[in-house]
Amino acid sequence: MRIYTKTGDGGQTSVIGGRVRKDDARVEAYGTIDELNSFVGQASALLQDDRFKDLREQLSVIGQELFDCGSDLAYTPAAQQPYKTHAAMTERLELWIDRLEADNPPLERFILPGGSPPAAALHVCRTVCRRAERRVVALTDEAEINPEVLRYLNRLSDYFFSAARTANLILRVDDVEYVRGARVFSGDKDRQNEQEQGE
Asked: Smallest Cα–Cα separation from 96: which of 147, 156, 139, 170?
């Protein structure tokens, strides 16, 4: 089987239900999710130590689910295919986040990406995830999509934030605090994800 088909040489690509330009908002959205999945694979490769077994297993599940998200976004209305991304996937992310945050140290300041190489890689995942979310939001102005994809991505960036802090905790490396700002968190676990400014 040949990897190249030459069918995209004119700047178009196939989606489920037709063909579109390669800069179409739909392609941009699921392409950014594909980019995110590559960074998830990179982060997982940095978590080979047995101490990261749980995180590694979670990232393996996330990789599969991101492919589901991309697949859902590749459907045009004409395709009429059943969606793969569902609410239970987001609920599982919330469970994982709660478990991670139960052990993570309280936040007092905003933190910067870094600390240890695994944590830095997970912060890259977080920021690319936020960009993927923005691309999906932009797509909703043009097309109907599975709304569970947007919910999943919104929660996933929070997961990467918590996972990055857990990676530093496991390695006994401090998070990198933003020292030019005041202490903005009370240490209340319920408010820690305000770092993400997520909703």
From this structure: 156
Q: What is the DSSP letter of 15?
A: E
List the beta bridge partners of residue 113.
Answer: none
Rounded CA-CA distance 62/125 in Å is: 11
What radius of gyration do the chain's Cα atoms show? 18
Above 90 in pLDDT, residue 18? no
Helices and strands (H and E) in the chain: how many? 5, 4
Residue 58, C-beta contacts closer than 8 angstroms, at least 6 positions apart: 96, 159, 163
Instruction: Record the pTM.
Output: 0.84
Amino acid at 191: R
Q: Which residues pair with 195 in a beta bridge?
A: none
- Report how far residue 47's alpha carbon sits from residue 55's, in angstroms, rounded to the nearest whole number: 8
